[in-house]
């Protein structure tokens, strides 16, 4: 090479480490001890990073978008999987693979393209949470993680667990509701399922990214202890139960500093207090600096094309050279990433891109989750289940003749069989609007072969009413599409569906409303409707799941993971902060409710919701007896018997709430535990719920401990947060102090 070429290469090497030449690297060691599987992930990572040049370390901390980025006209690096979320080049010299990243928590997503990957979609995260069944969550995660692997990905950007502080949040459908114990536990099991496929997964969006309006700029203010007992507790529990390889920090600011360069969130809480050994990746477009971000705990810039600058590219190289970021910190960044690769089996189990997916098997997993996640909100005069001998059924609205709705944005999974309703607005981000080709009507007809099933698209309420008037039963499918980067403007169903429902109810007293919504919605017509099902976004096999619940082939057992308010006026912020038309506007969101989210807020304010947290009906009934509590091995046990007092098999979700009779909490009660119990008619089962001790305490930010006050606590066993079927006992607890991870202090 001529001198000026070498100079050019050296200059490029400085500016863009990727261009460093092999001549700079020491010869690869005779053998690669880091590939020795008998060694711990810590040891393997230490050995591998020790063998790296600085350029090779820098390579890991600089992530690319796996798709062309139109605003900058960039194309993804060679090796990225087409229309994928992310790519990080590996290190062939050391035998370390590329990191191939896909979204998200509902299945293998594809960035918008005319030729998307067709994969199996789980129902929404709210549906999985509504099952209250951790094994179901695990199975769903295991399924989508296997499709990620078989599609050639070894990183899955899942684990969304932001709490539902606002039912209008445009990403509620990706998350698990309002309660930190339920959400953290369910998402933790889902992520564990994903990672069982030798795929690194994430927990996201860390932290307090609880609305989409102004998500890139708004600044969250909240009492730190309150954050620790709400949003942060959900993430802490999810990380403990999943051991996720990575955490994705979020777009917003917290306490005035962007989450992805926030020393308190990343270094103090996540890495020091919680002992997180994985790596922090930014969200795509959430990196805002080099030195501050690196020193405050960010380990990897993601989708660098979305950022104003390649902060963790040449600039980081310079910062290390000049000592603004220590060599040790760069080693730590690379070590965390490579350690996760060893720990999750990414290095020892290389992915292939031609895996054969069993879509029938995976569709059945999605259906099982959807069926268990459907919540029977109302069922007066036992309108449901429908008899298969019903003569005429009117199926109205919601494109129920061809499919079921899904939510928009980066989590969008494109269905096998293609979009059942193409061309709906918005066609561009966070669109397109995608309906999965699982037709409720077709499955209804299959379960009632002798019935006359008549479809009306619901666009003309008067015509729909006439159709309903001719039927024995009218099924109105009401939809609410929401998508990332946007919040619902209100809780009202869009597109005049309230009028449609009113009109149909007026024409036929046996009207059932099936909701396919991104979260809680208002129901001004609910008094006139004898039966309401919340099916959420029901996923790949959602039409079949809905039909099977309607006809009783499945006895519904879903329970709400979030409160359904009567109206926005009952919320801490009746009007959402920020202006959707000014996404770059900086504004503050003050979570004055602190940890009192959802039912805790309603209890604190003495408000009555439309449907309470934990609510869900069944086609059978259950009773509770023998409630008792006992402190054993430092844990509070709550024991009771559940009996199926009806005449069909079913599953119940007995919930244990705890209220301090002496101490003062953010709200009168907290969910302290639950179980999911399957019972034949007349069958009883003994249940033993072990209470997560942190739920009994108040977090003290100064001492970083959970303090359980001495005194009496009321334990309420009920079917929902409103105390349905409630029985209670009181227990006397000694004072105790837990460390920041909830462990009894010696
Ligand atoms: C998106 C989302 C994040 C996703 C990432 C990659 O903007 O906030 O959840 O994983 O970018 O698509």
Please give the CATH class of the largest domain. Answer: Alpha Beta
The number of distinct structural domains comes to: 3
Q: What is the overall number of helices?
A: 18
Query: What is the H level of CATH, i.e. the homologous superfamily of the largest domain?
Result: Glycoside hydrolase, family 3, N-terminal domain
CATH domain topology of the largest domain: TIM Barrel
Sheet-strand content, in percent, reads 15-25%
Integer average pLDDT: 95
Termini Cα gap: 66 Å
Q: What's the total count of β strands?
A: 31
Q: Spatial order of the strands in the main sheet?
A: 1-2-3-4-5-7-10
Which range best describes the helical content: under 10%, 10-25%, 25-40%, 40-55%, 55-70% or over 70%? Answer: 25-40%
Query: Poorly predicted ranges (pLDDT <50, ≥5 residues)?
Result: 1-23
C-alpha Rg, in Å?
A: 26 Å
Domain Fibronectin type III-like: 652-721
Family: Belongs to the glycosyl hydrolase 3 family.
Keywords: Hydrolase, Signal
Pfam families: Fn3-like (PF14310), Glyco_hydro_3 (PF00933), Glyco_hydro_3_C (PF01915)
């Amino acid at each position: 090479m001529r001198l000026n070429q070498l100079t050019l290469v050296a200059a490029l090497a400085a500016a863009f480490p990727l261009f460093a030449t092999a001549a700079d690297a020491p010869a690869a060691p005779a053998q690669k001890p880091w590939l020795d599987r008998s060694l711990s992930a810590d040891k393997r990572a230490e050995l591998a990073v020790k063998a790296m040049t600085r350029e090779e370390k820098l390579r890991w901390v600089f992530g690319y978008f796996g798709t062309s980025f139109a605003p900058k006209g960039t194309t993804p690096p060679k090796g990225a999987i087409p229309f994928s979320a992310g790519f990080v080049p590996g290190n062939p010299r050391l035998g370390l693979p590329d990191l191939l990243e896909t979204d998200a928590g509902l299945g293998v997503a594809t960035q918008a393209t005319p030729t998307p990957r067709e994969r199996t979609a789980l129902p929404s995260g709210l549906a999985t949470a509504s099952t209250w069944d951790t094994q179901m969550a695990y199975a769903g995660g295991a399924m989508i993680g296997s499709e990620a692997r078989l599609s050639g990905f070894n990183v899955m950007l899942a684990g969304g667990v932001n709490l539902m502080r606002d039912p209008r949040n445009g990403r509620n459908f990706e998350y698990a509701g309002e309660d930190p114990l339920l959400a953290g536990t369910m998402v933790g099991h889902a992520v564990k399922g994903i990672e069982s496929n030798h795929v690194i997964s994430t927990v996201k969006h860390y932290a307090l990214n609880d609305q989409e309006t102004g998500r890139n700029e708004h600044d969250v203010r909240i009492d730190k202890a309150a954050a620790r007992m709400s949003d942060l507790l959900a993430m802490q529990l999810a990380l403990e139960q999943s051991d996720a390889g990575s955490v994705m920090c979020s777009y917003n600011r917290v306490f005035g500093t962007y989450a992805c360069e926030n020393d308190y969130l990343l270094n103090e809480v996540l890495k020091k207090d919680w002992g997180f050994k994985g790596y922090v990746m930014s969200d795509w477009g959430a990196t805002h600096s080099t030195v501050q971000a690196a020193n405050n705990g960010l380990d990897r810039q993601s989708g660098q094309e979305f950022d104003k600058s390649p902060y963790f590219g040449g600039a980081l190289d310079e910062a290390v050279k000049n000592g603004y970021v220590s060599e040790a910190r760069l080693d730590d960044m690379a070590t965390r990433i490579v350690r996760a690769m060893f720990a999750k089996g990414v290095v020892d189990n290389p992915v292939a891109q031609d895996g054969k997916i069993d879509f029938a098997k995976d569709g059945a997993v999605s259906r099982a989750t959807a069926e268990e996640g459907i919540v029977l909100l109302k069922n007066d005069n036992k309108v449901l289940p429908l008899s298969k001998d019903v003569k005429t059924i009117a199926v109205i609205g919601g494109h129920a003749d061809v499919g079921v709705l899904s939510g928009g944005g980066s989590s969008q999974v494109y269905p096998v069989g293609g979009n059942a309703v193409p061309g709906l607005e918005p066609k561009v981000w966070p669109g397109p609007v995608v309906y999965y080709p699982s037709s409720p009507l077709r499955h209804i007809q299959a379960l009632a072969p002798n019935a006359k099933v008549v479809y009306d698209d619901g666009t003309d309420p008067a015509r729909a009413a006439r159709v309903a008037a001719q039927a024995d039963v009218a099924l109105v499918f009401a939809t609410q599409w929401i998508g990332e980067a946007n919040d619902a403007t209100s809780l009202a169903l869009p597109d005049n569906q309230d009028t449609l429902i009113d009109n149909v109810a007026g024409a036929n007293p046996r009207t059932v409303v099936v909701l396919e919504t991104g979260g809680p919605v208002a129901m001004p017509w609910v008094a006139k409707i004898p039966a309401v099902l919340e099916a959420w976004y029901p996923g790949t096999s959602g039409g079949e799941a809905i039909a099977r619940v309607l006809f009783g082939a499945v006895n519904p057992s879903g329970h709400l993971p979030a409160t359904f308010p009567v109206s926005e006026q009952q919320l801490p912020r009746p009007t959402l902060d920020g202006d959707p038309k000014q996404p770059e506007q900086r504004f503050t969101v003050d979570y004055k409710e602190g940890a009192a989210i959802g039912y805790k807020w309603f209890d604190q304010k003495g408000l009555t919701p439309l449907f309470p947290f934990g609510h869900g009906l069944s086609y059978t009934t259950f009773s509770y007896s023998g409630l008792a509590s006992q402190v054993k091995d430092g844990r509070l046990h709550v024991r009771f018997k559940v009996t199926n007092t009806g005449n069909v098999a079913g599953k119940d979700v007995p919930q244990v709430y705890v209220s301090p009779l002496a101490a003062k909490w953010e709200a009168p009660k907290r969910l302290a535990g639950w179980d999911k119990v399957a019972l034949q008619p007349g069958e009883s089962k003994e249940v033993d719920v072990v209470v997560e001790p942190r739920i009994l305490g108040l977090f003290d930010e100064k001492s970083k401990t959970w303090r359980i006050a001495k005194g009496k606590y009321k334990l309420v066993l009920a079917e929902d947060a409103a105390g349905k079927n409630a029985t209670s006992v009181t227990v006397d607890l000694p004072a105790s102090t837990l460390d920041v991870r909830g462990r009894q202090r010696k």
